[in-house]
Batch of 4 targets.
Target 1
Amino acid sequence: MSEQVAIDAVALEVIRNALVEVAEEMNVNLIRTAYSPNIKERRDCSCALFDSRGRMIAQAESIPVHLGAMPFSVKAALELVPGMKPGDTVVLNDPFAGGAHLPDLTFVTPVFLGGRIVAYAANRAHHADVGGKTPASLAGDTTEIFQEGLRIPPVKLWKGGELDTDLVRLITANVRTPEERMGDLRAQKAANETGRRRFLEVVDRYGWDTIWAAIDRIMDYSERRMRAEVSLLPDGVYAYQDYLDGDGISAGRTRIRAVVTIEGTGISIDFSGSSPQVEGPVNAVYAVTASATYYTLRALTDPDIPPNEGCYRPINIVAPRGTVVNAVLPAAVVGGNLETSQRIVDVLMGALAGAVPERVTGACQGSMNSVTLGGVDPRSGRAYTLYETVGGGMGGRSTMDGVDGVQCHMTNTLNTPVEALEIAYPLMVERYELVPDSCGAGKWRGGLGVRRDVRVLDHRAKLSLLADRRELRPWGVFDGRPGKEGSQYLIVDGDERAVPAKGSMVLQPGSVISIRTPGGGGYGDPAERPRDLVIRDCREGRISAEYAMKHHGVEPG
């Protein structure tokens, strides 16, 4: 059919952008209608469109770790829930059946035209609690998936347009904040309904035969552009390895190694040298590893290539089963989506620094610095769960400094605004500031890390931390210096005590948890940094006079 329809380049681009805007509107609707601050304020969600064969057509530019992994969820839904009917919506979060980690719930809704499925609307949102051993379901000390929360294989939550109340009772009986969960689930359903309606409007405007032909050609176009970009990279074999500080349970560091082979228009990434899956929760399932790989290669080639199934055809990934980059049951995986995905990006950046030195950065902060708090809100007597990640330093770039205090690479969420956090939770943000001298020195320095102190008010709260780059600092490139490592402290009556980066504990009323995130690594020799930039950084409080003298030989005066 598609070969018989003529579409000129202008019409093809108009249709492509129309499909992208469908996904973007889905995302806006999901954020607008969500209940939890994690989705409404932090925007921890992603939306995409797929064709009738489960191939990704278009996506909203939101959370990289969601978007590269979502095709695996759609594929699992199509395989395990065949014969979807109008009004059906499938939900899943099982990492071993297309998911990433349990807090990320994916919705898949078929789009019907003339009695047949022509597309699927899908979205993924991070829920602030799905059960498990700690509030917010991100315990840093789990040892198997069964401790991490309610595991949902692909099942129909809506059947023929009717909500399955039996399944709802099962889900809400296993979470700490059932009303908030139902609000977010309904927001996800509304987002997919938006996608379904808007897709059919595009079909109505251009005709189904034209849309079907355009989908194939858009994917082929992305493939051609990606292959063209890969062909510009120097052929060769490039290898690098880096480590997570540890898994939070067993001794020793967790290695991730990649061998990248570029040949012609194809690129292969082999993770065979990575550690076997570990006891703690930093194992990544294959979908997460693929997502991190896709993100990095888009970033280092041309980020403007339309992200769809065709974009990833030139990329071959080898990730042996049973390793930390392709874990199998019953591995604990909640941190694989958060921390291991970040280290995979670091490894690929390190490997390809020799191929595209002008495009890589110094290592970014390399952690999502996940913080969860939960308990009973003394103001209402109801349970609450807070989940947030804290930004840090971006690595220095070939022509400019890294950015201070931002989310990097696989996460693209916002912070939780102080005002929103203090309204929603019995917590107070006492400090929120950049960390001076945390940047890696270089001709172009890395970005600064962040300090965020949160006090628990009038109740006992359960805290869980899941973070990395507390021992191994974010490295610099081309003689750039590493950024400062992160840290975390429990502050009680003014006394600070260092606490582990992966683990859980109970906080007493009045306790403060202080998170200090890593800075980014520098790019280039610090001796080559222009003097006026060093003086500017001192004047603005980013670095101290001692730092300026030590790394740049500059006395600010």
Target 2
Amino acid sequence: MEWSKDHPGKTEQFWKVDFSRYEETIDRDPRATIFPDRGEAGTAEFGALRVLERLFARDGSLPGVRFELFETIGTGGSGVVRKAKQTALGRDVAVKSIRSHKRTEAAIRDLLHEAWITGSLEHPNIVPVHDIILDKNGDPLIVLKRIEGVSWSQLIGDAGRVHQLFGVEDLLEWNLGILLQVLNAVRFAHSRGIIHRDIKPDNVMIGQFGEVYVVDWGLAVSLRNDETGRLPLAARATSLAGTPCYMAPEMLGDSEYPITERTDIYLVGSVLHEILTGHPPHMGRDAMAIIGSVVTSNPEFPADAPEGLVRICRRAMDPDPDGRFENTEQVQLAIQGFLRNRGSERLGRQAETTLSELETQLARAVKSDRKIGSKERSELDSGELSSSPSAHRQRLYRLFGACRFGFREALAAWHGNYKARAGLQRAIVAMIEYELAQGDQRAAAALYAELPDPLEDLHRRIQQAIEFQAAEKRRAAELERLGQQLDIRVGQRARALATLVLGLSFTIVPTICTWQWPFTAFDNHPKLIVWTAIFGVFTLAVGYRIRRSLRESAANRRLFSLLLLLIAAEFPLQVGLWSAGFTADESLLVHEFVWFFLAAIIAVTFDLRLLPAAFGYLVTFFIMAVLPESRLYIFNVPHGLLTINYVLAWRSL
């Protein structure tokens, strides 16, 4: 059959492989390793058997002489592994051999290839090969370090057992640590030109003290031809081989992409996928579904999977080898970077939780500020909202302070934590909106200065709100100033005292003069003009004495100005009446009406309680008009009434 798949940036790729012969194997166990066709080795590689013949000729020892064999500890493919003891050194080892019913020249060759490849890779994370010996039938026995432990596949998803064995609390971090050690082994193998081709948790052993070993190098191939026939060549690895639920697209066989280091990088990505999801990436109801998953290589992840690891996994598992990491070192650096930044991400997630609570409280605060029914308000007040606005504001700022601190700590640990940066931005913007709604533009401006990323529209709104608030304050200050200036309560004591002094002066002095010198004190116009001048000078003197009070109050200034205006107006009025032929006592009648008019204006303009004094002038005016002979005796009586009225009214303010 023929399978085709488009790859971005590449021409259409074709796999001309008959997958039907693998269906039964894949359906039975997609986690089992599929070994390549035996014909892929080539003639030169069968020289390995001649090496075996020379080995047999040189070493005729039997395992019973040098090793004691015990029970089987594992089987796979055509091989079997048994416990053994190396008698000369008295140490425990493992011996791998070919199962009797699987014995073929190809099986012998594969076992030797695995031994030679593994033996050439001396690395702390690769199981050491101690020796190759022959049994009595001349079949090879591979002597390996015995690992006291379990496969990674038994621990990768078992947090409880990992904690029990190693005291680990964070399973993800522990698994990533194991993967980094696997990468150490793979990176070393790549430096020697060796590709593993079957990296999976089943092929990683964890020792009882946490040692990590990459095992089962039976599918490994070499990128370099050493001309000895000991190492199978990657260039000849053209048939399907590997573990289906982990394998890369080029491992399906007959691919335009060769087997390279990036094939192992894909397998590392598949293991990382299992760490994140709990299962290998290529799973399906049947073999063809699994193969289809291998071809598309579009892994899925749970919503809570760390984005940093998801990005690493997707890149490592790119179906196009050119889209993957260039080498294992890049994968290691990426995972190490994630582990360094994981603390930052944890702080960011904690801050996100606090931010969600803050946003909920802010939404409730907005709701409580609206015009809602008393029943609903009562429910809100008895719920999470505080009983007073100030207490609720303090709670909001406690939440804001907590999430802001968390986001800042996350950014301090990892400047590239864009989620923490976005969360900090969101928290500050939310509080700015709250402060703008509360009318505290200065607080909003102070918060804006903390934004990681400026927002021009928000900045413009804040500036407009500040300008509007400043204008409102200026208007309020001006209104307050005007109110104070027009407030008759300001300077009331000085005004009442001045009124008393002037009123008594305008009343007592004329009365004494009238009774002392009847018909002579005010019997002509020149005398009236002189008296007016005297009262004017006296009024100016009183005004100078209370000048501070006059400055404090526009009401006092206007009252005093009206009084001065009236006195000043009496001079031309007196001259006009004199010129018109009015007698002195007739002019007193006119002056009485003028004083009534002034008193009425003051009462209507400043204080209606002063109306009785105005009516006193009016009543006196009519009496003087009806009883001319009484004019000189009563014209100054309203001044006394005015004084009493004004003092009583202003004293009670």
Target 3
Amino acid sequence: MSAVISFPKKADEIISYNPATGAEVGRVENTSAEDVENAVEQARAVFQMWRTTSFATRRKFVMKAREIILAEMDDIALLISNESGKPIAEAFSMEIAPVLDLMQYFARRAEKLLKPRKINIGLYGLLGRTSKIVYQPLGVVAIIPAWNYPFSIPLGEAVMSLMAGNTVVLKPSELTPFIGLKIGEIFEKAGLPENVVQIVNGAGATGAALVEAAPDKIMFTGSVATGKRIAEAAAKNLTSVVLELGGKDAMIVFADANLELAADGAVWGAFCNSGQSCSSVERLYVEESAAAELTRKIVEKTKKLKQGAGDSVTTDIGAMSSERQLKIVADHVASFEKEGAKILTGGKSKDLFYEPTVISGANNSMRAMQEETFGPTLPIATFKIEAEAVKLANDSEFGLTASVWTRDLKKGRRVAEQIEAGTVCVNEVLYTHGIGQTPWGGFKNSGNGRTHGIEGLMELVQPQHIHVNKLAILPNAWWMPYGANAIETFKGFAKYFASGSLFQTAKLTPKLLKRIIELRKK
């Protein structure tokens, strides 16, 4: 990071820096644990009002917030670039545009998606019973996002929470606090009632305080280690959690694939946002016969990328978001070299910029093929047959996303269904987080639960079963008191009624009538 002149940091404040220039973006107050607890209490109090609002009212606020984003889009994109280091082009394409789409989709569709659902209860319906599911909001949703997509991830989760009838307390990353404040400002300008969305700032201690304050749901995006600590702390209050914990995503390229397209996909999938995406391509497996050609194309395309400050319109790759993350990348590249892989291009850093790096000769025994890198590296390994490709892709503690590249779509789908990942694309890579209609989440240590899609919306409500007896004029045959006749009737239930067959159940009618008459007399 470049040297800058700044005032000494106070103990109760966070300083935000532009990772590309080292310039100070600004300072925000560090929210105390007491204030975090108060924020959750205030959110819980206003929840009783917010939960009663109509979907039309919630839609109005969300769509107004969307209009504000559109009006301030250029300033928001610049803020995202300044705080995260990503190219301003990606601030638009990977943060603003996707979340705007998500906002309109859930604003318009949440009511239909959460519509009460009638349950077919089989033969019980003949007894005058009906059942349905209604979806009740949870209460206070705590959102603790990562720094890599500081606008789209928390804003999307907040919008879905609001449309489901919940209130929100958001703690942005300490690396991107002003983007979190901007989200709060957007909702404030939209006229959202006070305390329905609140922003608390701070580092790990603030996040821990938010978990300890016992919200009704926690949405966390970050590392496996932190996710496990949050899950453990949340368990004390039986707080439900959704954990998105990263990945080591595999890209499988068969020899019959469009190699030009696959190379373009690999370069973008590995290097966009400086590789700081949990769905970045971190392992590329190519069929041996196509390895040389694909690798050559990838290296050629990588060398043409322009790296620089994110506010330049021609920048392809910006700065890493932190020195800590850059050190992990440098360590992994050094580890690849030490274990026999070859650096074909890149492999150097300056300040917080790390060159996009293509590595050949990788294999799954190498440490850096197992640990999450979260940086602009693309290690390439080879395989001989389809089964080997699947085995290599699944040889990981993570399972967030993966991709399969082939002109044979039948083969592509077949392989995709064998890969242990929450999302598998065929001839596509990485971007499905930007499709708010589809679920997002992973297998194994990539976390649990889902965001986005109907599956993500269901994480933000609790299903309530409503059961009604429309013929409440006779006693139920299974009520007390019991006796020999009761036991014979219950045997009939087991033998005939539980068969699910109306024909078989008809055989129970005499015993059932006898039992009801018996109960009425008593």
Target 4
Amino acid sequence: MRRSLTAEQWDDISRKIQSSTLTLAQRAALRFKLFLEYESDWIDAAERIPARRTLASFPDIYAPGEKERLTSGFHVHEQGRVCNISSDWAGVLREGLLPRRERCAPETVQCIDAALEYADRYGDERLSQAMRTGASSFLDALRMFRILHFCLWASNVYHNTVGRFDQYMYPYYVADKQNIGLDSATVLSLLEEFFLSFNRDSDLYQGMQQGDNGQSMMLGGCDRDGRCAVNELTSLCITASLNIRKIDPKINLRVDKNTPLELLVKCTELTRLGLGFPQYSNDDIVIPALVKLGYSIEDARDYTVAACWEFIIPGLAMDIPNIDAISLAGAADTVIRAKLAQCRSFAQLLEEVRAELFARADALEAALKPIWIEPAPFQSALMSDPTRDISEGAKYNNYGIHGTGFATAVDQLAAVKKYIYDERSIDPNALLDAMNDAFARSAELKYKLRAEAPKLGRDSECEPIADYLLDAFADSWAGRKNERGGVFRPGTGSAMYYLWHADELGALADGHMPGEPLSANFSPSLLVSDAGPLSVIQAMARPGIARVINGGPLTLELSDTVFKNDESLEKVGQLVRGFIILGGHQMQLNAVNRQTLLSAQHDPDNHRGLIVRVWGWSGHFVQLDKSYQDQIIKRTSYKV
């Protein structure tokens, strides 16, 4: 089914779309038009949801070496393209593309025309009409979304999120129930087929690893007026995901202190399958925090998530929620190595850590400008204001900064506080010497730091340090503006930096060894193996999280033995509910069996279907690089 262009076709297309007489926006629009023209309109009579990718690759808009020359002196985020956007799906499905066409730039008009021509090739009058003037039924809306989403990928935009699906699809569901007697069984069947469509081409849509493709769906939460928006589609979507057992779309659920336990238990059934979702986001914490960052209350109530877990607003945001990261573990280590011998008190050492965070923020802020973002005329058509070039900005233009190794930073400082300043049982220079030779001559000290020193998630004396570090991280970015007029949003996510930043570290004051990975996101150190899940959720529901609200979930691995019966499912649901009530902002759970993971490493052919949560996305374990596999294996597996 996959095919390649001939050499002659490739050269001809390249010559056209790389012409120096065209602006980059014109090139992007022409590339999109030609991509759809060369793409096959794959029609399977058994499929109700059309569109399959056949072209494995397509020429870029840059001639060889041209992108490097054009972007010289700029900060290029990832591929330099628009990504991690949640489109105005509600508006586009409601009104179609023709009303937007009348208000768009010529390049966007060209893209709209190309998308309409592509839809027409399926020979379905209802689909063609829906694309032009809006969907009039539940099935029309599903088919229209599929074409539009397919076209986004074709336009070189990536990490295309699904957004608040049960909200913008609900009017069509209700209307069809009333007008044609649409029943739940038919809806479920349509949803299952729709969900399967996300997995047709996902091998071509990769980020850091296969599975990291941004096809995230948000369910539940409240509406723009603050009313509970959980509906019948919310539950049906969870059931559809349970039935198909695929990694896409990746389910997220907005919750609050009033979320019924029954819904959390139903979601726990998804966790039991080992899919690594749903991921939970707590409206009680997230919405007020977004308002403090400058989002209107109505927009904040409408939040969804980007590819992983960062909070974005559908149709209104050109936020770059994962633009870069600060190594919190590295900042603590730098200060300990440089200042420990001189600091006379632990309070003085903490002030040095704070100063280091500010210095790192200064350096990173300077490195992020000027920024290069490639035009994306078709994505512009799908925003709330289609007249605006999305690459030049939108209503919200904020940058998200990850904070990696949070628990390891806290644990380093906690060990120093206890043994250097409180007990005075370890000489500062002796600790530094041991760190410098990776504890080669200090086995007892290494054991003491790794096993006996205070650890966040297990020992309460770490929590004041955690609160201080969160506030210092928040303060280091407060008041800064990026070049696009937005703010900086620090957060507790790690993305892939939990491996990258770990490679930069030597032996640490908590006993962490060179080459050992950090924990993913806002989770206890991998050195913590003797804490219970209740202790962990209490420790990680920090009040300061509201000031570092870019997103970053507590990630917990639960032994697959936890999910043995209905009573166990309710216990896990209660665990999630407890985290919400305590004030946790995000959580994701993984059902794992360490022996199965080890077996999958050694015998991948017999474990092709094994799915795990990686950092903010789920993927097939055997397709991951070994470094990611090893980190997952080392995570603590909790029992409830």
